[in-house]
Specification:
The complex is a heterodimer of chains A (243) and B (280). By secondary structure, chain A is of the alpha/beta class. Chain A has 8 helices and 10 strands. Chain B has 2 domains: 61 residues; 210 residues, Orthogonal Bundle (MetI-like fold), CATH 1.10.3720.10. Classes of the chains: A alpha/beta (243), B mainly alpha (280).
Chain lengths: 243, 280
């Protein structure tokens, strides 16, 4: 269970502080998915970084599994915009990095995940030798290597072409259903939010405040994009964003 | 008979293809580039020598043939001076690297440390370190240690400033990537800061080679006696310029060897910089 109460994030010193997030509340049950959508630069990423323990809230509380978040935690994994791969490490080294940092490598490794994601053949390559889609899959492999109970994703498919984006959205959905982690996705893409979020929170321009919450109970199948329910959710989200 | 001719033709085609492939290989291209560059430099030197000697009506500037002949004739003596200078320069680079890289990375990433140490760098960096040569000779004598210390001191600032700048420009996503996985401060330095800054550090070492040779020359010629290419060049410049220029050629070779060495090192340590996207 994730609980966010009255989350406020300010940047800068008190007299010249810029408010990025203002009194945001939401909660997420175990193994459910939530999308946060809002205009670019509204403060979505700040919320995600606070959940990852990378930012301290100026006010309010964040609890994961009943424990307040005070720093990065092993059961929480973060996927960044450009997959966050280190260019000087091979696919194998990148995929195993979280395990290595936690002291679990080589006792545990990401071999099976790399194989399942079709990356076994490229494990000795560097990120510069991979397509954008492959890089995202390596990022996913790294995030899943520690078997997290919470997966945070910060616009993970930005700058990908439409077909690759859809393929990786399908992959996210399948992995979420297989691995049963709680998923929080930050995006500015309405279609992505409607495809992956059981609940979608629409945020205002900076400072980010909760503008509307759209529930999306019928998501969860790969052909959901073709359904009327999906079109309705997309329409509701567009209206909420334009309001 | 016809079969023999065909066989010979096939062999010629095969050999010419192999030669073309060898010539077109990246390593060979690099070697050819170096040979052509050296040939152009030797030609320009010969032209300069002819012009200077014609203007002065004397053999003031020896040409490449005279200098290179002296390199061959005095190989044993030059070798002694070459290795004396080479180890001083390499030792100075290693000392400068060992001192400047950790400090540069620390002040590049730790804001409080940067606030205190940067003003010290700004004050001491512009002071010409060469001004301390005589003082250092007075205090520590004219031996190799002082010469190494002078070169190391100059290179220290060069590498320190580059390392600090490189550490300050690390892509935030790389840092966030490891911090979100719970990396400790030491792990961030080892997995991100050092590898991310290594290409720029090696570039600063390349720049330092030229600077180091210049200061090594000053240090070696400031002492009255001793070994080293600087001492050799100074001793012969007035009365045996062919020999002095042989010493200059040896110094150029020293620089070239170190440049190529750093290039090779970069290809090994930063292999990721030289790869391109390729299909499965």
């Amino acid at each position: 269970m994730i609980d966010v109460e009255s989350l406020t994030i300010d940047y800068g010193r008190a007299d010249r502080a810029v408010q990025a997030v203002e009194r945001v509340d939401f909660s997420l049950e175990k193994r459910r998915s939530l999308a946060l959508i809002g205009p670019s630069g509204c403060g979505k990423t700040s919320i995600l970084f606070a959940l990852a323990g990378l930012l301290s809230p100026s006010n309010g509380t964040i609890k994961i599994g009943g424990e307040p978040v005070t720093g990065p935690r092993r059961e929480v994994a973060l996927i960044l915009q450009n997959a966050g791969l280190l260019p000087w490490k091979t696919v194998w080294q990148n995929a195993n990095l979280s395990l290595l940092l936690a002291g679990d490598y080589p006792g545990r490794n990401a071999g099976v995940i790399l194989h399942n994601l079709g990356l076994a053949e490229v494990k000795s390559r560097f990120p510069a030798e991979l397509s954008e889609g492959m890089k995202r899959r390596v990022g996913i492999a790294r995030a899943l290597s520690t078997a997290p109970s919470v997966l945070l994703m910060d616009e993970p498919l930005a700058s990908l072409d439409t077909l690759t984006r859809e393929r990786i959205q399908d992959l996210f959905l399948t992995l979420w259903q297989e691995h049963r982690f709680s998923l929080i996705l930050v995006t500015h893409d309405i279609v992505e939010a409607a495809f992956l979020g059981q609940e979608i929170i629409v945020l205002t321009k900076q400072p980010a405040r909760v503008k509307a919450t759209v529930v999306n109970p019928k998501m969860g199948s790969l052909d959901y994009r073709q359904s009327e329910a999906f079109q309705r959710t997309v329409h509701d989200l567009r209206e909420a964003l334009e309001r | 008979m016809k079969r023999t001719i065909t066989h010979v033709e096939d062999t010629v085609v095969l050999v010419s293809k192999s030669v073309t492939r060898f010539v077109k290989s990246p390593a060979m291209k690099q070697v050819i580039t170096y040979i052509v560059s050296i040939a152009i430099l030797l030609f320009l030197w010969e032209m300069a020598s002819l012009a200077v000697n014609a203007i002065n009506q004397s053999r003031l500037l020896p040409g490449p043939y005279e200098a290179l002949s002296q390199v061959v004739k005095n190989a044993a003596e030059l070798q002694r001076h070459f290795f004396a200078s080479a180890w001083r320069l390499i030792l100075a680079i290693l000392i400068a690297l060992a001192a400047a890289v950790p400090l540069g990375l620390l002040i590049g990433r730790e804001h409080t440390l940067n606030r205190f140490i940067s003003p010290m760098i700004y004050i001491t960096y512009p002071i010409p370190q060469v001004a301390f040569i005589l003082f250092l000779f007075l205090v520590f004598g004219t031996g190799s240690a002082t010469k190494v210390a002078i070169v190391a001191l100059v290179l220290f600032f060069q590498i320190l400033v580059s390392s600090r700048g490189a550490a300050q420009n690390i892509d935030e996503e790389h840092l966030t990537s490891v911090l979100s996985a719970g990396a400790t401060r030491w792990q961030v330095y080892w997995h991100v800061t050092l590898p991310a800054t290594l290409p720029e550090i090696l570039t600063s070492v390349r720049v330092s080679i030229g600077l180091g040779i210049a200061f090594l020359y000053i240090a070696e010629t400031s002492a009255a006696l001793g070994t080293g290419l600087g001492t050799f060049i100074k001793a012969h410049m007035l009365y045996a310029r062919d020999l002095a220029f042989a010493g200059i050629v040896a110094m150029a070779i020293l620089g070239l060897v170190l440049y190529v060495g750093i290039d090779l090192l970069e290809h090994v340590l930063c292999r990721w910089k030289y790869v391109r996207r390729r299909p499965l």
